[in-house]
Amino acid sequence: MTTTTPDETAPPSLRTRIRRIAQRGHYDRATLHAIVDDAFICHVAFADAHGVHCIPTACWREGDYLYIHGSNGSRMLKLAASGAQVCVMITHLDGLVLARSAFHHSMNYRSAVIYGSFEVVPDDHKAAALDAFMEGFAPGRSRQVRRGNASELAATTMLRIALAEAASKIRTGGPADDEDDLALPVWAGVLPMALAPLPPQADTPAIEPPDYVQQWREGDVADPV
Question: Which domain holds residue 171?
Fold first, then answer.
């Protein structure tokens, strides 16, 4: 039996092909997974009888799937659970690029767009998936807190979308000024930006912070699963 390996240098579909500044496009799994793993929030775009919507929601990755969850009453989750086509977007802003000309100002970023339809996560995997979500930002916490009971899990819709039809786009580096502008006496460069941890704010000061809180305090933020 012959098996084929997907070409990770080519877009998986026509709608994932990067057209504008195509050299910034990436189609390999490793780049996509890294961008998704650095995200706590994604935006889900969908259309219904009332128009087009784009809703932010928490997300995490397990294998080749991106997961989301929420209340059974969510309009977005109800529509997504029906198998409707959606577009999921993740963006990380890494810096403001200041050029010598107004036209060439830009931003450094890492982004991913995922197309397809969500599928409902079986009830018997909900608890484990929520544990994976929590472990992504607080390793060990899922074993300390009270897990969701049957009623809470029943009130939760959990969906996942395959990362098969997706594309990443990344910009790095400094300004790309025209040669005629390089001699202008104007400061040019990059103002880096990053999501950084701040000191934890204890709700129960008498309880000794666990290791993952201590690490957060020290600036060692856990990598999502």
Answer: 14-177+187-217
